Amino acid sequence: MRAKPLLTTVLAALVAVPAVLLTGAGTASAADPITLTSGFYVNPGSSPAAWVAAHPGDSRAAAINTNIAARPIARWFGTGSTGDQVASYVGAANSHDLLPVLVAYNIPGRDACGGQSAGGAGSVAAYKAWISTFAAAVADRPAIVVIEPDALGDFDCMTSARIADRLDMLGYATRMFQQKAPNTWAYLDAGNAGWTAPDSMAANLNAAGVHNVRGFAVNVSNYYSTSASESYAGAVNSALASRGGSAHFVVDTSRNGNGSNGVWCNPAGRKLGTPPQSGGGADALLWVKTPGNSDGQCGIAPTVPAGTFSPDLATRLINGT
């Protein structure tokens, strides 16, 4: 697998903190969550924030707090996450007129070919119940949701029957957000510039119901530069257009400041990218992956499991080393 393994959900107490203001707005067919809010919500329970709180005397804490923990970072919801937790998180953001970014990451056979972040719901029926509850918990409050990172690029090791099940589940997910979360911009994950060919990804997105939602996300948990990611998204959109219409997209810029060196699992020499903002050639540039969370037991963090925060990884991203 040429994509990245992904982080685990951090379930923590929610409090309000200042958010980075948004810098523009797109236009949604129904409602635009960016113009309905006054900035992105900063997750006070993120893994870097929790580490900083637990290590106030560490010489790295101030830099990690300023450069990472204080930024708006998506919160991931997966196995064990409940509708009440989703509702609480979205409600905390909404109570301060701020826009939360969430990731739904619970599809059966998650990270099927990479294996570093394996897991997910136990069956198709269980997943459909879970994602329906997720969308209903967001309800009519403004939100951005990235749907199932890796799910549409991770077909190489799957049977045709499993692929058909996955497309069915993703199509169901898009319909749930369309029906139950009218003020949400939801994006199906579309891999990254170094993984699936644009025409193949467009076919997968089309089969998964991308036109039921706002669009697709690129570079989630990977390192490709913003320009490379936007070029890839443009190629995907050109291929989508030949199938009946293009879509909007967002880019994960959390760790793409130095671009990609072709390694997806904890490579050296990477750097934090542009902080979250709306616009920038996409609907938004987002920090979907939590900077400092390991991709797996590999690269420069061979003993750090996927999703575990490492202050060494975080510091390297701050310094670009």
From TrEMBL:
The keyword tRNA processing does not apply. Substrate binds at residues 76, 195, 222, 264, 289. Residues 1-30 form the signal peptide. Keywords: Carbohydrate metabolism, Cellulose degradation, Disulfide bond, Glycosidase, Hydrolase, Polysaccharide degradation, Signal. It comes from the Bacteria. It is an enzyme of class 3 (hydrolase). PROSITE patterns: GLYCOSYL_HYDROL_F6_2. One of its GO terms (molecular function) is hydrolase activity, hydrolyzing O-glycosyl compounds. GO terms for biological process: cellulose catabolic process. Belongs to the glycosyl hydrolase family 6. This is Glucanase. It comes from Actinacidiphila alni.
